[in-house]
Amino acid sequence: MASVVRICQGLGITASSFLAGTLYASSTLAVPAILAGKTNPSLLASQWHSMYQTGMKVGPTLALLGAVNYLYVAWGAYNSTYDTRVWKGFVGAAVGTIGIVPFTLVFMAPTNSALIAQTAKTTLSEVDVRGLVEKWALLNLLRSGIPVIGTALGLYSAL
Predict the structure, then answer these.
(1) How many CB atoms lie within 10 A of CB 100?
(2) pLDDT in tens, 113-151
(3) Dist CA 115 CA 49 (whole Å)
(4) What is the CA radius of gyration of the chain?
(5) Which residues, 6 or more positions from 11, have their beta carbon under 8 angstroms from its beta carbon?
(6) What's the pTM?
């Protein structure tokens, strides 16, 4: 049983740290690259949408993988130890990892919807599209901190 717990700890920590890195890289590497230079607004919207579609596949998968593994470890710790720090820490890690979902729905959905709507338009304003992509990058950068908290709690609880 102990080896399964260690594997799940490792999977949770790995998934939440990969999630944080993916979100961070989207804002600090990918967005600046697509914003570089004078870009056709349609191309800019299309490039953002492509990045968004990829992120929609990777992000929730990593968040779910991390959260499920953290919750499994929390359940095991709850049933086998009187140290509430351990199981509560893993529950906190799970919440920190899956916490990107409510953040996205509450804070990012309007920007996401506006950018998706821009991809359907035939006439686009570079200022509008660029401004929306820059806003998205900032929100996404803030969102990347959520799984960092999950990772930190997972590491702390594992030690």
Answers:
(1) 26
(2) 999 988 887 777 877 899 999 999 999 999 999 999 999
(3) 8
(4) 18
(5) 65, 66, 69
(6) 0.91
